[in-house]
Design brief:
Layout: H1 3-25, H2 37-47, H3 51-69, H4 75-90, H5 98-123, H6 131-171
Length: 174
């Protein structure tokens, strides 16, 4: 096996291991909305070379953890929002910087907030089906957004940092 192939396999394997760790940490008790999901999705989109694979890996990780945690009626919206976060990660492919990573992670959390709470408003009788009900839905969701944003940035930057550290220490030396 050529050195190039070996370093590609090591790189991909290390990315997949980090994604698996993030997915598994979803099963550990945590505060509401403080999960690795969005950080994992942005990281996957930014780091996995094959785009279809970048979508499939976090969705498979979500599905496997949902087998343990259980499914719910709005799971399709959550999976869709995760795919949007993978797509946001694609924007980092050309040249990763921590500033771009931070912007992508903030954007991913914001997109998740907008999409999932729009779905709550649209599919719920809790809010009136007008602009006031939509605004009310978003306002009521703000306390949950804090944990979503913090966890997305923490887990996402943590994954980028650990991969960067691993790549500089081990992969480039192969």
């Amino acid at each position: 096996m050529s050195d190039l192939m070996k370093s590609i396999n090591i790189r991909t394997s290390s990315i997949l291991i980090l994604i698996a760790i993030l997915a598994f940490s979803r099963l550990i008790p945590h505060p509401p909305n403080f999960t690795p999901l969005l950080g994992m999705a942005v990281f996957s989109g930014a780091m996995l070379d094959k785009k279809l694979f970048a979508f499939m890996v976090p969705l498979l990780a979500m599905f496997l953890s949902d087998l343990v945690l259980g499914f719910h009626s709005s799971i399709s919206i959550i999976y869709f929002a995760i795919m949007l976060n993978v797509a946001i990660g694609f924007l980092l492919v050309f040249k990763f910087t921590y500033l771009k990573g931070l912007v992508a992670l903030f954007s991913g959390a914001f997109v998740f907030f907008i999409v999932t709470n729009f779905a709550v408003w649209l599919g719920s009788s809790m809010y009136s089906q007008d602009i006031n009900g939509l605004i009310s839905c978003y306002i009521m969701a703000l306390p949950f957004f804090q944990n979503t944003l913090l966890s997305t940035v923490m887990y996402g930057l943590g994954a980028f940092y650990l991969f960067d550290l691993f790549e500089n220490k081990f992969i480039k030396s192969v």
